[in-house]
Amino acid sequence: MKVTVNRKAHFNAAHRLYNADWTDARNAIVFGKCANPHYHGHNYELTVSVKGEIHPETGFVMDMKILKNLIETEIEEQFDHKNLNEEVPEFKTLNPTAENIAVVIWNKLRPKIGKNLDLSITLFETQRNFVTYDGE
Amino acid sequence: MKVTVNRKAHFNAAHRLYNADWTDARNAIVFGKCANPHYHGHNYELTVSVKGEIHPETGFVMDMKILKNLIETEIEEQFDHKNLNEEVPEFKTLNPTAENIAVVIWNKLRPKIGKNLDLSITLFETQRNFVTYDGE
Amino acid sequence: MKVTVNRKAHFNAAHRLYNADWTDARNAIVFGKCANPHYHGHNYELTVSVKGEIHPETGFVMDMKILKNLIETEIEEQFDHKNLNEEVPEFKTLNPTAENIAVVIWNKLRPKIGKNLDLSITLFETQRNFVTYDGE
Amino acid sequence: MKVTVNRKAHFNAAHRLYNADWTDARNAIVFGKCANPHYHGHNYELTVSVKGEIHPETGFVMDMKILKNLIETEIEEQFDHKNLNEEVPEFKTLNPTAENIAVVIWNKLRPKIGKNLDLSITLFETQRNFVTYDGE
Amino acid sequence: MKVTVNRKAHFNAAHRLYNADWTDARNAIVFGKCANPHYHGHNYELTVSVKGEIHPETGFVMDMKILKNLIETEIEEQFDHKNLNEEVPEFKTLNPTAENIAVVIWNKLRPKIGKNLDLSITLFETQRNFVTYDGE
Amino acid sequence: MKVTVNRKAHFNAAHRLYNADWTDARNAIVFGKCANPHYHGHNYELTVSVKGEIHPETGFVMDMKILKNLIETEIEEQFDHKNLNEEVPEFKTLNPTAENIAVVIWNKLRPKIGKNLDLSITLFETQRNFVTYDGE
User: Domain span at residue A38?
Assistant: First the structure.
């Protein structure tokens, strides 16, 4: 009897899309205005989903207070009000597309979540664009 | 050619999180302010999802009017403007966490939905916390 | 050059609608299922709006961090995960309708906001019902 | 390492539910006010979901600008501000239920999306009714 | 001490924008695809706002159950699942723009609301276009 | 008979809060993490509201297609995917708080809107913080 519990969070960050192996011209062609060297930014809306058995004593799959605190420590404090390209080590050499940000978040949270629990990440970059990643 | 049809509904209810086998002190430690003996409450937002083949004559997987009425009779009339702990029989001995409420809703609806249809429940307890359950 | 700055917050609470001067029967007739003596509850969504001149040095009408903290201290800590009728002094003798809750919130915040600033309160009781009050 | 990228779009259209093999009376019984011969309409909210490997050079599963343009050309220009029954060839003989519209959208987009990518369609007909279809 | 109470509702309808005094060509130029003679449609989201004194015995400005029923009888039953141009008398000779629909709704509700109460209408035609009218 | 018509739009931008007349230390104290010299960013959600008489021939206060295009040309093309501090002339010496951005938008649109029409700007910086400005 497995239930998925989901917790929403958010962070505001600057970024640009950029492949350092390419010329500026090619970056501009492929990434368009997202390649702007002065950066732009987003309100990222994050949902962290954890699936597992309900614990019979608590009725919880995972205590949402613990999950909330984990997201704050591992993600919000690292990403919020930051420039992803300049200040977040994972994106020094990795292009901070929504896809790659979701994978980085999953990789950061996975070791902190019990092994008997499945983890999935949903990340809205804008109200019209979002991505999901579950480690598979 | 299977399609999932989804219907949203809601109910407003009071509850507290509480394990009757524990001391009040332990309840307070584990459940925090959610254990408040005077209760608190939520606007629960429910999505009922039913997956199956499209009927060739109607173009429906399931008539949404029937599904809407079923949710009203089986869930809204039982839970809306109620105290879940005090007035809903299923929670006399079961802690009304979002996880357990979703399982109870699934169990109440499952016998009323055709056997050839899959059933899944999504329940928002707040705008930031929600759970999903599909009977597996 | 006056701008209105708005900050959203929320609290989850139990309540019932009840006039102690009336019989239970009259309460049931007027307030319907909202009069349930076992209580029900809501996720209240609050917007606090403050209107005034932009300060030329900061570009702020009011520092949103200060407003956020004020709402937490004065409103969220008093109302969140509480039973409004039983645990919030203002509602010992005042019926906790959305209208009255908005007036109580306005009265609690008004002395904490600069006199040169206008204050308005918007309170959603459900996604379909909300009220606004600006002290006039 | 597969990620799902999702793009939202919308179109406004008129339709009625109607089975040409039935009498008007039977249409009225089964489809109720949705069978109104004068039509009614909706703001359809569409999410197109594409799942696949992240391309190592771009960090994209699929360029969202390309996906956005594809939805505009294939779906929005065909359906927006149209009468689905009268003006969209697919619904000349197919009842434009949300289920069938989702299948038609999937069939129109599937040949335009890379074979190594999975495709799923979510379509909101109203804020409370929505369907999903992934081709299985 | 005046409070505004607001109630949300919705209706789904077909319409077209059309001035019968103009040629079809001029209608097409001015109203674009909104002039499509086969109609298109919307999920109209309505907020009815009523401002007045809080009644000291009930704590209500106006009983929201009464307001909800009034909106159902006067607006939803007249407009929902209808073709506004063909089936709603007010639009036989009046172009059903969002502006005009809001004025018609205000005119229909005004005589049913107490004279000591102010009335305002907000109508979303799409998620990005909406209008407000308060009778002035 | 005046109606307000409202059009929503959005732009994604980077910014930092900073007063060039202050030391970095004072900027850090007053603006906190918003003063980060590497910038952060937001999805700004904009509503432009225009109030005036309904034109009897069109049923419009203002053609929403014209308003949409005006917002695109004057605001979105100037602000979207930009660094407000570095690339938008108005903020070379003006701190890009939400308050100041709303005033700048109002000032840019005011000359383009008919003199018989009132103009108001609402700007969401995050889902919880927003401002309104109407030129008074």
Answer: 2-133
